[in-house]
Amino acid sequence: MTHYQVCFTRISGKGSGDGWQAINATPGLPQEAISAFTRFQNGNITPPSFDAEDVGSQLVTELQNDGNFAFYTLIKCNAAADDRGRPIMFAHSYVFPLNEFVQAPQDVLGLEQSNFAFEIAQTASAPQVLTKKIPFSLSEAVESLGLNKDSYAALVQCVYFILDSKAKNSLHIICDCAPDTIRKFMTCIYAALPFEFRKKITYATYELQSGAVKTIIFDRKIKSASNYHLIPQTGENNVISDVVLKRWKKYEFMRFVPNNYKDNANLDDYFKCLEEKLDLFGSAQTTSLDLYKIAYDLISDEQNENMTATPEVLCKRLNELLSAPISHPYIDQQIQYVLGYIVEYKVVLNDVLSEKLCKKLETTRDQDLIECGYLYNSEKISRMTVDEGAKYLFAAYSNRQSESFIQIRNLLDRDSKGREILNQLYTGLIAEQTANDKEHILAFFEETKTLFDRSKIQVSLFKMVCAYLKLLVEKNKDPFMLMSNTNDLLCAVLSDRPEATSKAKAYVKKEYWREFNYADLEIDSQKKYKDVVLQDDRTCQLVFEILCAYQYFTAGDVRQLSEQVNYLFPKKNELFTAEERSLLVKKLLDTCVENRNAIDDTQLDIWLTLAFLLCQEKKNPARFLIENRIRPISKCFERAYPRSEFLKDEQTKERFVEYLTEYVQEKTEYSKVAAEALQVIKEHEKHAKQDIKRQQRKEKREMRESSEKSSLFSGIGGVFKRKNRDDDDDKKNRRR
Where is this region: Disordered (predicted)? Predict the structure, then answer.
């Protein structure tokens, strides 16, 4: 075995190189190892309280390691004295590669004390060959210590407890502390431990102040009741409680060496097989008790050619494999091997084990294990009642798009019992869920195509569709998009059922108008609402009456608009609440204003019809027209006014003039427009009066002229009559 040397002491003097330090290190020993040794010994400078038997020698034996090297050290606490007479310790250590040491720890434990020296000069160079004591067999060590199988097993269990504990504690072994006794105990301990656990072993003959806690301390007596201690010959200890002992009963590998300590050849094969099995796990560096148990059990199975296939043994083995601290393809193969027996013997796993298996199936890449797991789950579900199987599927497979659910579903779909369970799952459980998206319903439709009870499936599907459509109505205020989405869904899942499709559309329309809010009405988007027309629905009818009013406005049909407005918003409000009326009037007016450019500049009456609607809302219509920059009054009133039939009514004109006058008096930035409008009206009235007077004068003149003409014609007629009479008289006289 390769060995190095390194020492530690205090160099007296006042030079720069003086003080506590590592010295006489063998060339080739890595600096990391020297630094680790220095760190260990810095904690050992203060000597311990020696037992009476060791006061003279003041020697401490110590075994440490830094993960790469093992340090077997003898410490002489009174090797020298400083100028004040204080003792100076000297530590002499032989260093071995850790991997070599754990293969043959006896070679180091048997080093003669003559190999060690405690002076600088005597350790200047390391010996090429180390003298060793004659080795003894494990059985010799066990029997000479007075141990039997049970007490040896207790010793091993106590050591495992210390090594496996997360807390940094030491095990105090009570003995005579003779070097050979310690060597025998360490021989027994190392022989019972796998190589990776051996690497964790450290020990000392005294508990020094070093920060590196030793796993084992050898004491002649119990020095503190708080320490973990063991009296090996009797097995008395305060380490392994009944609870721990019961829990560790499953770790049979711990007792293998104590039970077979006389068979050295068998022990060599045991550790060789154990390490080879751990290599298959891909985790040779692990020191997990559970993993070693798995390796030991697998070895036992191979040696026995088969495992004892009872339900208890199968479940126990599966649990151990599923609880392994690492994940590796070889372990997955072993899980599949055990699970195959479980499926064959129709063993039902408990809930905890089932959950572990499900998690493993989600992460493993072993296809054989995955398929075996699916087969187990499908067989397990098929043995349940229809209701139980459906509920289990519903709870265990919430994601029906997962590969695991799809595989289980396909396996269940092979026989009638499985189909009954699937049918109950979809119609009795899944269909009762709130269908919160289209994908949910489409998935339900696709997944249930092969189920034989089509009537139940169709009823459930229709309920899901209606539930989703109701949600769609609540979320979607746009009727066009609502019906578009509705039609897409219905075409996908109800295309072969026209009656159901018709009912679903009617349901959507009914829900739409039931949820309709006048605040969402878009008056200038009539086409949006054509697909949601519902006969005999009051809200639908009123909405379309409002849309018609707007159409009359854009068409410039004053008469129809006036009639429609008076129908919708009469003085005595009957169709809407006060709040709805106010909202709709504002919406109608705002929409018309937004689209004012669609109306001819001279169509004043269409605006006056709307504006006087505001009068019913106790507002000044002149303000509405002017402040919204309605062109027939703000820009073109002079041309529009003469064409207004609305203002030819004197009472209406007087009211409008009052509104304009009132607005002028408010003196706003638009008052000038009102004043100009008043001036136009005044000018027109003036011209109208002048026209009337002219007409009157004309009529009088024409009457006078007519009278004069009548008089003239009357005089001329008398002359003609007299002349005619004279002519007649002349004719009579000539006859005579």
Answer: 684-736
| Dist. CA 422–CA 389, nearest whole Å | 8
| Residue 630: its H or E element | none
For 438-475, what is each residue's pLDDT tens digit?
877 887 887 777 766 677 777 877 887 887 888 888 87
Residue 324: pLDDT over 90:
no
**Cα–Cα dist 67/315, whole Å:** 38
Most confident of 155-159, 358-362, 366-370, 480-484: 155-159
Question: Are 537 and 510 a contacting pair, CB within 8 Å?
Answer: yes
pLDDT at 299: 80
DSSP per-residue codes, 273-297: HHHHHHHHHT-TT---HHHHHHHHH
Hey, what amino acid is at 19? Answer: G
Q: CA 691 to CA 31: how far, in whole Å?
A: 126
Which of 589, 584, 627, 594 is closest to 607 using CA atoms?
589
Binning the chain into helix, strand and coil, the percentages to the nearest 5 are 60, 10, 30
Cα(629)–Cα(29) distance, rounded to whole angstroms?
Answer: 99
Sort strands 69-81 and 59-65 into parallel, antiparallel or unpaired. antiparallel
pLDDT in tens, 681-717: 888 888 878 877 888 888 888 888 887 777 666 655 5
DSSP classification of residue 452: S
Q: What is the dihedral of CA 362, 367, 371, 373, to 10 degrees?
A: -40
Q: How far apart are the first and last CA of the chain?
A: 198
Question: Which pLDDT score is estimated for 8?
Answer: 95
Residue 92 CA to residue 122 CA, distance in Å, equals 11
| Pairwise CA distance, residues 55 & 49, whole Å | 9
What is the tens place of the pLDDT at every residue in 384-435? Answer: 999 999 898 888 888 877 888 888 888 888 888 988 898 888 888 877 765 5
Radius of gyration of the chain (CA): 56
